[in-house]
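Hey, weird one. I pasted the Hydrophobic amino acid ABC transporter sequence into the form twice and got a warning about non-standard characters only the second time. First submission, copied straight from the form history:
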Amino acid sequence: MITRKGTLALLSSAALALTACGGGAGSSDSADSVKFGWLNGITGDYSSYYEPSQAAVTIAIDEINENGGVLGKEAVLVTADDLSTVEGAVQGFSRLVDVERVVAIGGVESTGGLAILDSAIEQQIPVFCPGCGSAELDTLAGEYMWRITGSDSDGGTIAAQFARDEGVKRVAIMAQNTEGMSEPADVFKKVFQDGTDGEIVADIRFNPGRSSYQAELLKAFESNPDAVYLAAGHEAASVIFREWQRRGYGGKFYVSPDLVTPPIGGLMPDLEDGVAVGAIAAYDVESPAYISFAERFNEATGYAPSPGVYDANQYDQYIALALAITKAQSTEGAAIAEAIPQVLNSGGTVVYSYADGVRELEAGNEINYDGASGSLELNEYGNLASPLFGEQFIIDGAWQQVGTLKLDPELREVLDR
């Protein structure tokens, strides 16, 4: 997930890069166009996501305009660089809303989403967060902000779901004593115990930066677990896995999403073929919406969409916004916000494109837009009701997806108890 931990440095000045893209030059005449804002980290820590994300949102705006625009008007995208900072997000939001007069905003990351949440509610500006992982949004969004990817807390939940589905009853936890690692481990512990009736036979926390974790490994495996849940950084995990290999403990690991990376995938053959199991966000690659988007994305970029950079989510947010405006027959923020769950949640005709959605709405039918990133069904907090995850095994020295699984909403509800 795109998230930031710890203290964020505030910049004393922010240069906002504003451009317009879409089916023609940007227009300030609201009578002729509908302006969408894209508040994104073009520079700074999130800048590596910019190019694929920019390609995805351009595809969405082009699709909208090629199919009649929004309420018969041209869709225009106005971009603001949030500098990957809190201050940049606040300034960018103000510029987009107060100067550019956009009707809605997409593209924000966790840092930006949390920074502008109160302002979005106060000013009734619909905001989509296509890659926000922050667990703080688990119950804060829903009125004027919608997160269309899984939460960081879902990483621990989906690991508990894998364990439940595989019949695992006894798990030892090994978690690094840092916020980003302790949180998913705590989630796993609660969901596994209270949601699956599993038993945590050991809960071991350790500090990073050590040369050995033999004592922690011994404590974990002498408790005779069916599996070990490991949440750690690359350095500590590498030491743990090598000592595990040397001592021949055997068994199975469920790992936090931070370890589903090439360095861990290529660490050793002993972890292959289901010994280490991970999960990351996934796309429904058989969906007509995904197939259509992926073809256009590949033509534009030369490579396939990747769940790790949330490109399909970036695309979906503007298709959803345009359909909500069509449903509401209004560009007023409150009307758009009311219509968003109406076009995304089940109960209507399933559609996979903007054109099909508009056609059904104009015929007086309810719709359920199923996006390129998968189902966009929302819960009461504006989060995906059942985000899709890919089960990952290490095969031939690399993590590979071996299946997909929707998160069980009932397990997520365990966290609210």
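That's the output from the first submission. The warning seems to come from a hidden character in my clipboard, not from the data itself. Residues 153-282+393-416 form a domain with the Rossmann fold fold (CATH 3.40.50.2300).
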